[in-house]
Specification:
single chain; alpha/beta; Aspartate Aminotransferase, domain 1; Aspartate Aminotransferase, domain 2; binds pyridoxal-5'-phosphate
């Protein structure tokens, strides 16, 4: 019998995550000039990398013969000052995605379950599958988490509840009073994961979930350097929780999971709050333009709170393909059971204009 007959049965059932398509890949496939393609498919920073992070990285290049500091001492000190939590309240990952995986390693296994919204970030479901835990998917209220229904779905075997806020891909946010009512009902045997990858760039007020960390609750708040600071390519994210939870998540962490360059860039990026403010302004302006144009075109959309939004185009996969032919990469939402929608990341002014003019051409051609 081949080794291939002995793949871990949980892992074997996993359908791998489909990320946004890279520019170079689309260029190769369609014979297009990569310089003329725009990617609005992975909610990346259209303003590039935080300039302070770039300067720090340039200086650090010559130190790359050393292994990273596995404990991320300098970054830990810097982020501790930023948030006002002691250094032992943080865990760093190769992207916040890796921390979701640590949660799987430490809390999910056959016989237990995790509760999430049906159209929440798909990685939660993948991680449940990988560790043999049941993913209990709760219908949303429209495109927003239904926190009351999530509470009702919690069972004695539930170990983790995921709340993605703002939710990727739907772009909706749960608000302070709903979170507060939700947290009153959460039982002691459950870890609540607030996945807040976009927290710094939202232009509506985020619920204060860190308050629950301060109150010693079984909560972890996940944040990322990928979005607000433009460090997606370096892969660095973090979780904030009480030390007992951090300790449990440190067990499966490999010693050098976060590379030195990422640690250095992240620490410098925290000093670049001007970059974050500029990004937020860019998104807000871009969102206003995209919403106005969609309204003029008679297209339904979900008003964004961060740097991405859903637009109802009737046939998401066809419109995705047609936009791609015109050098615009977005995301079709079929895998989230939203086949009529595409998700677009908000870009620079010229990227948004290119997207909208391609969308108009596609829409006009489809009317014929
Ligand atoms: C809601 C959400 N959580 C986590 C992530 C992963 O972010 P990171 O780049 O930090 O792994 C993403 C990335 O798009 C996301 O949208």
């Amino acid at each position: 019998m081949s080794v291939l007959n002995h793949i871990n049965p949980h892992v074997n059932k996993v359908i791998p995550y489909q990320p946004g398509r890279p520019i170079e890949e689309v260029a190769r496939e369609l014979g297009l000039n990569p310089d003329e393609i725009i990617k609005l498919a992975s909610n990346e920073s259209p303003l590039g990398v935080s300039p302070k992070a770039v300067r720090a990285m340039k200086k650090a290049c010559v130190e790359m013969h050393r292994y990273p500091d596995g404990g991320a001492y300098y970054l830990r000190q810097r982020i501790s000052k930023h948030y006002g939590f002691p250094p032992d309240h943080f865990i760093f990952g190769c992207g916040s995605n890796e921390i979701i995986e640590f949660i799987g390693h430490s809390f999910l296994y056959p016989g237990v379950s995790a509760v999430m919204s049906e159209k929440a970030f798909v990685i939660y479901r993948i991680i449940c599958g990988m560790f043999g835990a049941e993913a209990v998917e709760v219908p949303m209220k429209g495109l927003t988490h239904d926190l009351k229904a999530i509470i009702r779905a919690i069972r004695p075997d539930t170990r983790v509840v995921f709340v993605c806020n703002p939710n990727n891909p739907t772009g909706t946010m749960v608000r302070e009073k709903d979170v507060s009512a939700f947290m009153k009902k959460i039982p002691e045997h459950v870890l609540v994961v607030f996945d807040e990858a976009y927290a710094e760039i939202t232009y509506k007020k985020m619920p204060d979930t860190l308050a629950y960390v301060r109150k010693n609750r079984n909560v972890i708040v996940l944040r990322s350097f990928s979005k607000a600071y433009g460090l997606a390519g370096l892969r660095i994210g973090y979780g904030i929780a009480k030390p007992e939870i951090i300790h449990a998540l440190e067990k499966p962490r490999q010693p050098f999971n976060v590379n030195s360059m990422a640690q250095i860039a992240a620490a410098a990026a925290l000093d670049d709050q001007g970059f974050v403010r500029r990004s937020r302004r860019t998104y807000r302006k871009g969102a206003t333009l995209i919403m106005k144009t969609c309204s003029e075109m008679g297209l339904e959309f979900e008003p964004p709170v961060a740097n991405f939004m859903l637009i109802k185009v009737r046939n998401g996969i066809e419109v995705f393909n047609e936009l791609q032919q015109k050098g615009v990469i977005v995301r079709p939402m079929g895998p989230y059971n939203l086949p009529e929608w595409i998700r677009v990341s908000i870009g620079t002014e010229s990227e948004n204009m290119k997207f909208l003019s391609a969308l108009k051409e596609v829409a006009n051609a489809r009317k014929k």
